[in-house]
Each structure stands twice: as structure tokens, then as C-alpha cells.
Amino acid sequence: MSDATYPFIPYQPMRFSEEETLERAAAYQQFMQRRRSVRDFSARAVPREVIEQLIITSASAPSGAHKQPWTFCVVSDPLLKKQIREAAEKEERDSYSGRMTPEWLEDLAPLGTDWRKPFLETAPYLIVVFRKAYDYTPDGTKRNNYYVAESVGIACGFLIAAIHQAGLVTLTHTPSPMNFLSRLLQRPDNERPFLLLPVGYPEVGAKVPDLSRKPLEQVSVWYEQKPAH
Length: 229
Fold this sequence. Notes:
It is built from eight helices and six strands.
């Protein structure tokens, strides 16, 4: 592989001192610790331009072979949001009443969730993320995508962080199965629903479960060089 065939451009890194690097890492860590999944949304409008910027940020995520195998469907139409809510609640009702195991329901209990999903209508925007199993060339030939789930998952992480950065809130919603989203949004056969994110402002007085996150020593394992004797 040569630069003549596949052109490269100089990388322009941001340069910080060790102190600045630590300060920035710590500040971002503290900022992200304030991120929470919110289920009580305000109907307050959010400018479309904000959502556009969030999606552009999400689409900057790395992806397998740079195939960018995602589509972000943005829903603000009230009738379509209502249809999505009705279809999602049907699946959720079936899950809570029989699909979920007792252990699963026990684990969900501290979150106070049930099959009712009013936020799907209240939030001003729903962003439905689709993963593209493959792409079509202009002549209709299929072209494979690679590490699709991993790539789309990373993009969704970027999106959730960007939503928090903008002062908005969201909730990761995955009604199962999600095939109704393909039908309601009339997506092509190479796309599969991956994640549904309501996006907006929190309702005044919104509450979230009093949860704690695992500390560093429970989520990391370090392999460091031992000092020489």
C-alpha cells in the first residue's frame, strides 16, 4: 500500500503538558459522572441544528474499514412518535409479562421500570440508530461491512456523550424485537434497528434512581512492568 495509491494527510495532534492532560482527563471524568439515564422528559423544543451537530459528532466515530455502517433516523413527527410508542409498548408488555426471567425482573426492580414508555411521545426527538449489515453499490451489488455491531456501538457511545455535553438527556431504549422500527420508518433491507434514543430536556423535578457505579478496581485490571531489583 503506497501513499500514491491511498493518499494520507499529516495528523495534527493537540499537545498538552502532563499536568494539562491529567486535568482534562479528570475534568471530563467528573463531567461524565453526572450523566444519567432519564425517563422523565420535558416537551420543551430543541433546535434541529443541535440534533444535527450531535449526529455529526456521532458519525465521527471509528468504524471497521471506515465503512461507517450506520443510519441515524430522527423522528419529531407526533403521529410517528405515537406509532412508535404503541408498537414499543406492545413488545415491552409481552416482555414484562412473560419473556423476561424472574432474575431479569429482579435486576430491573431498582430502576423502577415497566412496560409503559411515555417518553417516546414526550421527548421532542427520537433518534433511531440502524446498523447497516452491508451496502449497495450504484449497480446494486452488495458490499460487506465489517465489525458492524462494534462500530455502531462506538458511534452510539459518542452520541450519548455528545447529548450530555449539550446539556440534554437521553435513555437507551431497546424494545425486543425491534423489527417494527424498520417497518414504521420504511428502512431498506440492509438496515437493522440497533438502538432507540429519546433526546430532550429533563422534566422539571425529574428523578433518577439512586445508583452507584463500580469503582476503578472493580472494572480494570492492570499489567505493569515490575520494578527491577
